[in-house]
Amino acid sequence: MKALLTWLNRLFAGSQNGPQPTLPNSSSPSKKSSTPAPSTNASATSEAKASEWQADPRSEKNLATVVPQLQKLGRELLRRLAAEGLTFKVTSGNRTQAEQDALYAQGRTKPGKVVTWTRKSRHIGGRAIDLTLFSGKNPVWDSKHYDRAGAIGEELGLVWGGRWRGGKTDRPHFELPA
Ligand SMILES: [Zn+2]
C-alpha cells in the first residue's frame, strides 16, 4: 500500500511538472496571420532548386551572353554533369561576326590551330555554347566525358556538335535547334 501511494505521488508530481497549457489569450509578439504560406508542392520545390543552381563564375559570365532559353538549358546541362562529378565550364557563348571571322582566320590566314569550320556560327546571336571539361584548372580536350555531355545535352533537346561529320565534328559545341 505504501508503495502504491509513493507511485501515485510520483505520478501526481510528474503531471505537475508537465507542460503548462497555453492560455487562449496569451500575448505573442508575432502574429501568425503574417507568416507566409508554406510551400505545398514538392516537385515545384525541386524545380525551384534547379533554377536557383548557379554554375561557376566563368560559365555564368558566358551564359549571360546567350539567349535565355539556352542559358537555362546550358545551366541544367552543367548541373547534371556536376552531379556526376564532371566539371564542365561554358568557355564560349555569344560571338560577334567580327569575333567569329577572327576565329575563322586562325589556322587559315593567321597563325594557330583551326578552331572553327564556319563563319556562320550559331554563336553569333547567342544560340550556341561551348563546354570544356576541366581537371582542376586545366582544360581537358580529349576525354570520353564529352560523349556523356553530348548525351545529356541531346536529352535536353540541344544539338550537339559531336554528331557532325566531314571534318566538322565539334565535341564541346551545343546549340539550340534551328
Ligand atoms: Zn561552338
Q: Which percent range fits the helix content?
A: 25-40%
Rg of Cα set: 30 Å
Percentage of residues in DSSP E strands: 5-15%
The first-level CATH class of the domain at 66-94 and 126-178 is given as: Alpha Beta
| Stretches with pLDDT under 50, minimum 5 residues | 14-18, 26-33
Tell me about this structure:
Helices cover 39% and strands 12% of the residues. With 178 residues, the chain is an alpha+beta fold. Strands 1, 2, 3, 4 and 5 form a 5-stranded antiparallel sheet that branches. A hairpin with a 2-residue loop joins strand 2 and strand 3. The radius of gyration is 30 Å and the shape is globular. The relative contact order is 0.11. About 7% of the residues have low confidence. The structure holds zinc ion (ZN).
